[in-house]
Design a protein that fits this description.
There is one protein chain. With 182 residues, the chain is of the alpha/beta class. The chain has helices at residues 11-22, 29-39, 42-52, 59-70, 73-78, 89-99, 114-124, 131-145, 147-154, 167-178; strands spanning 2-4, 25-28, 80-83, 107-111, 158-162. The longest helix is centred in the last third of the chain and has 15 residues, at 131-145. The structure holds adenosine-5'-diphosphate.
């Protein structure tokens, strides 16, 4: 499954609960890029500059990274929870090609309004959570990622879950849309 939602919508927090509940593998492209940066790989250094500026890493690079990750044994045996990917229409098309027919079961949009996510991000203070970085990432989300909601909707696999409220309540809402499918 894929989890979508604005920056600061609580995807990371809920993904940890979902992995505990369903035993799937959490693949977060943001985490993968941050790990590459820590390791100081060529990709990590280039991606780090884009991340700091709030810009996206180019589609062909992201598609390659994810395609490689999805071939690993853990994903093949346990299934995957994708977080941060796809983020553009090109990535969505690439994902569909990687997974093949019926490979995508569900896309959940963890819905939280722009004003709410902005104040949450200001509070968490991650390195790329500068006022400019936040504004730029949200702008790209509306332009590039929000259209994917319709893309998943057209495929009949989109569920929208209200992401405002207590962590446990949000998790219960997620379970109520996922449980019927597992
Ligand atoms: P956020 O959703 O708060 O931006 P992430 O951890 O998902 O946090 O991503 C951090 C940064 O990593 C993004 O701003 C972007 O630069 C890069 N990134 C992550 N996933 C992708 C992706 N699928 N395509 C392009 N860039 C990505």
């Amino acid at each position: 499954m894929v989890i979508l939602g604005r920056q600061g919508s609580g995807k990371g927090t809920q993904c940890a609960h979902l992995v505990g509940q369903y035993g799937c593998v959490h693949v977060s492209t943001g985490d993968m890029l941050r790990a590459a940066r820590e390791e100081g790989t060529e990709l990590g250094i280039a991606a780090g500059e884009l991340m700091d500026a709030g810009e996206l890493v180019p589609d062909d690079i992201m598609n390659g990274i994810v395609a490689e990750r999805l071939q690993k044994d853990d994903v093949l045996s346990r299934g995957v929870l994708l977080d941060g990917f796809p983020r553009t229409p090109d990535q969505a098309e690439a994902l569909e090609a990687m997974l093949g027919d019926g490979g995508l079961t569900l896309a959940v949009n963890l819905d939280v309004a722009v004003e709410v996510v902005t104040s949450r991000m200001v509070e968490r203070g991650r390195a790329d959570d500068t006022p400019e970085g936040i504004a730029r990432r949200l702008e790209l989300y509306e332009a590039q990622t929000a259209p994917l909601l319709e893309w998943f909707g057209d495929r009949g696999i989109l569920e929208v879950v209200d992401g405002v409220g207590e962590e446990d309540d949000v998790f219960s809402r997620l379970r109520s849309v996922i449980d019927p499918l597992v």
